[in-house]
Amino acid sequence: MSRTTALDADHYVHTVRRHNSDPLTLAAAIAASGLLTDYVVYEQPGRWFVAGNPIGAVTVGPDRLHCTLGGDHTESWSGTPWAQIRAALDRAPVPKWRAYGWACFELYRPDTAAPDDVLAHFIVPGVEFEITETTVHSRSYGTAFDLDLTGIVTATTIPTPVPVDEVDTAYLQRVRHALDRIHDGEFHKVIMSRRVDLPFAVDMPATYATVRRANTPARSFLLDLGGWQAAGVSPETVLEADATGLVTTQPLAGTRARTGHADHDRALRDDLLTDPKEIYEHATSVRLAYDELDSVGSTTRVSEFLDIKERGTVQHLGSRVETLLAADRTCWDALAAVFPAVTASGIPKAAACAAIGDLEPGTRGLYSGAVIRADSSGTLDAALILRAVYQRDGRSWLRAGAGVVAGSTPDREHEETCEKLACIAPYIVPRTPEADTCDLPGFFHESACRRRPPDGS
């Protein structure tokens, strides 16, 4: 095993090592070790990022933003907080910061949240791993976080499938109410979702690995941050931005099942591509995504249209819209323009989100929000939080939704939620007492097991 180590001007120690493990297994094992506090695992094509032990954080409530980077700072916000989040991250004691975090659906309508709710939470990590097929790049603030790749122990996990196809009569009624409001001209499309509670606590890292192996996501994520735990396989990105100012969003709308039988799946695909209701739902979503990006861009175009994207147990109509940011705009302005994703809210967005608040019980929280990875250079990657398992305050649950338009029927939208839940429900691993301990002997050096985050929290 080769190893190189260097210290950069930001006081991060860089270490590069080769490995012979499966990257997914390695990322899940690091998360399961118990040695990272407030962590996020984020998969982009060809690499997994594991970040935790923050040197500071930015949290956003319904009307206040609090930052512990570069001192303790609180300020008010209204409208949209994204530009202030970026400015708060710029207070980090490292000029070339990287940040990871999440944003709840209710960040778009903070008036629906309780006064003490946290609607977004970002960290600048003290420890960050970037895992490829052959190497692990680590960055640790101040001193090395010594990772021993030779001691990985892969535990055997047995999922407990969860039934999700019981008829949810309350959901059927919500879809009927949504259709009535569509016919009255209040909005054109709204995503109605339903929740399935789980009867046991979930081993999140083990479930993440099991779910990811069974799916073909655009992104995947695992997090334990700010009181939320979640593991999911995101079907689409809310926003992708690079340092040149090119930003992209990827709306997926229109769904059919994938059964694993090639001929039947091909027939379902052909049906999807010719179904007027599904094509209308998709085309209107693409049009809104275009208008949103065009509001911050100088050159906007649809670079893909009506492709088929296979996502585990379902297949979707997928398109891609991109723009080059205007000179006075940033990727955070673009995120403000498209959040929450049209494919998880509706059209027009404000009216649809208001209807979601009226018709769905409680709040959504992370569901249909975003997991975000960003840095000081202007790159940003935001995954839509769908196809996930959630855990908070001693409760665990799944959630899925379907787009309701004038041509919808309640039974078909309910069936679609079942198809989407099937991406996750068969692969849930219950938490056992052994999962609450650091049982990966040799995985980290002993000195690392005693490490606390640099801010002492």
Q: How does the SSE layout of this entry go?
A:
Blueprint: E1 3-7, E2 12-18, H1 23-32, E3 39-44, E4 47-60, E5 64-67, E6 73-76, H2 82-89, E7 98-103, E8 120-131, E9 135-141, H3 169-183, E10 189-197, H4 204-213, E11 219-225, E12 228-234, E13 237-241, E14 246-249, E15 252-257, H5 262-274, H6 276-294, E16 297-311, E17 314-325, H7 331-338, E18 346-347, H8 349-359, E19 370-375, E20 380-384, E21 388-392, E22 395-404, H9 410-421, H10 446-449
Antiparallel strand pairs: 1-2, 2-9, 3-4, 3-11, 4-5, 4-8, 5-6, 7-8, 7-19, 8-9, 10-18, 10-22, 11-12, 12-21, 13-14, 13-20, 14-17, 15-17, 16-17, 19-20, 21-22
Helix pairs in contact: 1-4, 3-9
Which structural class is indicated by helix and strand composition? alpha+beta
Work out the radius of gyration: 22 Å
Q: How many discrete structural domains?
A: 1
User: CATH-wise, what's the superfamily?
Assistant: Anthranilate synthase
CATH architecture: 4-Layer Sandwich
Ends distance:
34 Å
Helix content: 10-25%
